[in-house]
Amino acid sequence: xxxxxxxxxxxxxxxxxxxxxxxxxxxxxxxxxxxxxxxxxxxxxxxxxxxxxxxxxxxxxxxxxxxxxxxxxxxxxxxxxxxxxxxxxxxxxxxxxxxxxxxxxxxxxxxxxxxxxxxxxxxxxxxxxxxxxxxxxxxxxxxxxxxxxxxxxxxxxxxxxxxxxxxxxxxxxxxxxxxxxxxxxxxxxxxxxxxxxxxxxxxxxxxxxxxxxxxxxxxxxxxxxxxxxxxxxxxxxxxxxxxxxxxxxxxxxxxxxxxxxxxxxxxxx
Length: 269
Ligand SMILES: [Fe+2]
Ligand SMILES: [Fe+2]
What we know:
The protein has helices at residues 2-30, 36-58, 65-94, 105-127, 133-158, 164-189, 197-226, 236-261. It is mostly helical. One fe (ii) ion is lined by residues 19, 23, 111, 114, 241, 245.
């Protein structure tokens, strides 16, 4: 039991602390050079999450669960702070206080939602209160489908407009994921009656097909950007970042599928 707690905690912290670290870098790159105070804050968060990430890799499955509980609480604190910083930034952008900064409001809202998700995961882990599987299936999908829909929109807007075919493909993914998100919200409002095994299983199957194809599209885009074969203002690390988030969603879908079919015991949720 405690070993499961350590494994789940390390898995979440290793994945999301790297994500938070990269968000700090993307913010730094998008700010104007005169925004020195905001840049300093972003760079400070970069260092904090870099340290958390390396600390999480220094722990092992044999680490005392009490030490992990303490670590999770510290990470929770850092994530709360970066969440506040991101929301402050969103306020500044929406009040037109940073004219010319290259940061879409939806991008800042998006990365603050990811921070909030990470914070909730840490709190659930430390309190030992994981959601029942049928609830987790709907909640995780509502969260990640929106994240995927946003990614498709970001890619579509950061590619050079002359990359007409790729922009069109990104737009199609955006529409596809908006539809899937609405379906998920419908299933959500029909709970608990909608939480039958056949409906949840079909829900996961359908989402998996689209996430796989978006994941492959992101992988192609990442490789093309790294090889300088397409025109865009997408940082290669951002391309890899959104690819990894799609991979994460796929792993979560597979884990739910195993839990539903009872093939394997749930190792995390
Ligand atoms: Fe992210
Ligand atoms: Fe994201």
